[in-house]
Amino acid sequence: MSELAVAFDVATLDEALALDRRLGEGPELAKVGLQLFATAGPVAVRALAQRGRRVFLDLKLHDIPATVGRAMAGIAELKVKLTTVHCGENPRMLEAAVAAGRGRVGVLGITVLTSVSAADAAAAGLHVDPAGGLQGLVLRRAQLARQAGCAGVVCSGLEVRAVKARMGRDFLAVTPGIRPAWAAGGADDQARLATPTAALAAGAAH
Q: Which residues does the annotation mark as catalytic?
């Protein structure tokens, strides 16, 4: 069953707690990203958890395996539900994250950021299938994540159906870049968008 994760993309702990109060009691996850973590750090995670909110810590770790492993050990102590690590160039980084999490946190592999288009990826030297766009790259990275023991991946809503078909129903596909149809043409830095309805129909977990 799909669940909603609300992005707590705010600058201060006070703003985060105000957002949590506006949401009220509910099942939504609080997605804490770099902006809030840079100012409030683990305090924000603990404060939201104390208010009954499940936390999705979205720091997108990307470093040498030993460093990622040490960071993940600290994240596991925060008792968050999900956290993110870039699939990157080295599957040992993902393996180190999963091992250090010790089953206490669901590790999601970031496949290709939703702000990245096929043209962006090709310009960066990544192999992009002219016919299939970024789907092939996303699937290759999802395979690495599954082999490393990750709970799932982060991908755009455009790739969820293919990820689920290849990796299985229990492998999580978490989808940022979600916009209602009337807002899809707005000016922001997202390149690969999906509507909530399309992401749900494709099988997005969050």
A: 60
The answer to whether the pTM exceeds 0.85 is yes
81 vs 74: CA distance, rounded Å: 14
The CA distance from 184 to 37, in Å, is 28
Structure tokens at 32: 């804490």
For residue 203, report the phi and psi dihedrals to the nearest 5 degrees: 110, 20
Q: How many CB atoms lie within 10 A of CB 8?
A: 27
Digit-by-digit pLDDT tens for the chain (206 residues) are: 789 999 999 999 999 999 999 999 888 999 999 999 999 999 999 999 999 999 999 999 999 999 999 999 999 999 999 999 999 888 999 999 999 999 999 999 999 999 999 999 999 999 898 878 899 999 999 999 999 999 999 999 999 999 999 999 999 999 998 888 887 666 678 888 899 999 999 999 99
